[in-house]
């Protein structure tokens, strides 16, 4: 089944070494997303990038301490994204958050197809 609707996409950019209350930042953010009942979130680990500090963050194969660029993407309704934003104020110490309108096309299996597979 195919359904289309307007939603919001939230992208959170930060560094792999960033933490919140001793926990990796991506784990803290994903935990809050799950707690608030958001549809889903995906964490991406970048190869190289920089932000407002212009400090280049790189993923290094042989380096013990890593600080690769990270991005979390969340797509959900405007209301759900709005529930998350105030929590990010307290969790994200340094980074960038971008919110944009998106057109979602979601494909799901129909009940009868899923049962016969």
What descriptive keywords fit this protein?
117 residues, alpha+beta, Alpha-Beta Plaits, two-stranded antiparallel ribbon, 8 strands, 40% strand, globular
Overview of the molecule:
This protein has 117 residues and is of the alpha+beta class. The chain has one domain: Alpha-Beta Plaits. 27% of the residues lie in helices and 40% in strands. The chain has 3 helices and 8 strands; from the N terminus they run E-E-E-H-E-E-E-E-H-E-H. It has helices spanning 25-36, 78-91, 111-116, and strands at residues 2-15, 19-20, 23-24, 41-45, 48-49, 57-58, 69-76, 96-107. The strands form 3 sheets. It has a 4-stranded antiparallel β-sheet, covered by helices on one side. A hairpin with a 2-residue loop joins strand 2 and strand 3. Helix 1 packs antiparallel against helix 2. The protein is globular and about 50 Å long. The model has no long low-confidence stretch (mean pLDDT 87).
């Amino acid at each position: 089944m195919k359904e289309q609707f307007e939603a919001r996409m939230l992208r959170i950019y930060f560094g792999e070494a960033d933490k919140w209350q001793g926990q990796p930042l991506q784990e803290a953010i994903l935990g809050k997303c799950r707690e608030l009942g958001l549809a889903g979130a995906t964490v991406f680990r970048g190869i190289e990038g920089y932000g407002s500090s212009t400090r280049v963050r790189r993923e290094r194969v042989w380096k013990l301490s890593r600080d690769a660029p990270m991005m979390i993407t969340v797509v959900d309704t405007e209301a759900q994204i709005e529930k998350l934003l105030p929590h990010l104020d307290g969790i994200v110490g340094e980074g960038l958050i971008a919110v944009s309108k998106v057109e979602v096309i979601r494909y799901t299996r129909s009940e009868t197809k899923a049962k016969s597979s």
